[in-house]
Amino acid sequence: MDLERRNEELEELYLLERCFPEAEKLKRETRLLSQWKHYIQCDGSPDPSVSQEINTFISLWKEETNETFEEVIGKSKLVLNLIDKLKLILLETPPYDLQDKIVTQYQGSILELQELLHCKFNTATEILLRQASTLADLDSGNMEKVIQDENITLYVWANLKKNPRYRSVRFSETQIGFEIPRILATSDIALRLLHTHYDHVTPLRPVPTSLQEHTSTITNLVRDEEKNLEAAISKEMQEECKQEENESNSVHEEEIKVEDQGETEVKMSSVQEEPEVTKCELEMKLISETVLAAQLLLLENAHEKPSDLDDNEVDLCQFTTLGGVYHLDILELPPQCKPMKGWMVVEILKEGLQKYIYPPETTEDFETEYSFPPIEVTLEVHENVIFFEDPMVARWDAEGKHWKTDGISNVSYKSEERLITFNLETFGPVTLIQDSHINMPYQSWELRPLDVNKVLLSVTTIFAEIQIQIKENLCMLASIKVNNKKHSSILEGRWMTPVSFITALKEAGLNIFPTRHSHFYVIINYKVPLTEMKAYRQMALLSSAFAFGWSRWNMLCDSKKVVFKVREHLRKEEPIEDPNWALLMFSGDRAQRLKIDEYSDTFSEALKEETEFHSTLYHMVKDFASEEAMEKIRSSNDQFIDSVGHMLLLTRVLSYS
User: Which intervals carry biased composition (Basic and acidic residues) (predicted)?
Assistant: First the structure.
């Protein structure tokens, strides 16, 4: 392949890949418009990105007292929406556009809102328990209350009768509840199970600083180049002006002077136009370089595994909390409301809702074992979460600020009823966890066009087949099969932005998005990040007209090369059973069509007859593509190409299959 043709191909690729910085510009404009859109909505809700507005909202809500549980639930919808907006801003804004003080402000607001919301639920629980005697069940004499909402479920039981034989607490004719020891059955206590369908307990993940440092270095280099160019242009303009001035002074009077002045204006305007064009080019170069750096760092693997973990601490790089948090509390029953001369009188304790310490801190070990045994708990697993294996139970260690697996025993799971039972030594927040990499490595994958600016990405794992549709700047879960059976999900048919979509999939237990630490927990087919990144970008460019698929030979070529199947696909209907795939090998700067096919006996890098090497995948497929296919590629939407590339970069199908 001669040098001249190589340069021509790379130049054409550079022009095609302008779609990535163009898409980033559109995303930046959208982020800048979001505040204005919120302002013109005039719905009375605060803009969470404006510290003054969110601080005022928090202060005003703190002043509201005596809110019932139903009232707090109503307000919680707005609070959860504000938290989600702030989290989304932090996730969608590239690290090179995030300032440290903004990250600190947003995360501080998130923590304040989370703490205040939980505090409000505690106060509302206390108000509810003060009325326990008036809400007592006629049969048992005890109070039982269940409040359900889309975001929380509350189960409360108040022990009013203190019957030593009443040891099994079950809510609303379900199996959800507790088996309590005699000492609790005879105490003035209440049991609370507050299931928040979200997780406000796990600490917020820090924004990756290495990415900020790396991309800011590139940004500074390009900005320096821009300043140097502007200085050179300014100098050139000054010299032009000086030259024109000297010429006008050397000629006779007004008639010629007017002519010279006209010429000067024309030349000045042309010189001014040039820097505008050059500045625009530099801006695109700046965005292009920072986007490239950010994409490359998405594929960089961490060099060290998290090692500073306590005994029995859950490694959150390996496991994910799913289905929210179950806040389990044994509470001291507050003084009850009493009727008096037509009034309801109640003693309000200054210290508020108090927890009942179980087991007591001052008992002997022998006494604890028999008088204060572990409490059996039965919980319902959230219906919108998928567990591919029996879930593990973890408890929150408030002192260490992490999840731990000790103090939990006799765990059993009924998958059909979605009930999990276990014994718990001490009460507090508990959650269910699943291996984040349970669906890795993938068994196969395929990316194929469906329509104009619309593709389907299929990822097959040992447990599931996940199909994702991508169109323009949106993604949707098209279907999911678990153990070869169709599984319905609340996410199906809902179009979301890529970042929101990925977050929703992870929260549903459908994690096919490796992190920089994932290679420590799963066997991968390591590929050089630069090669992998270039492959994903160029596959995204071609995705409007070409289908790509997994090849078994990708495991056998070295880490500097990737091998995958490709074929032209212009029809909207389902693909035929055994399509005619071509095998391509790509090293980042050289693409070739292989002589072997998927069913050959041995791997060979031999070039297919009557084909030649190219510098890019685009020019490689151009050799055997139809004109219609090439036209579809050239007319693809920038945001669509960017979304496909983003999904490929985050699923990493070439190194995790």
Answer: 243-266
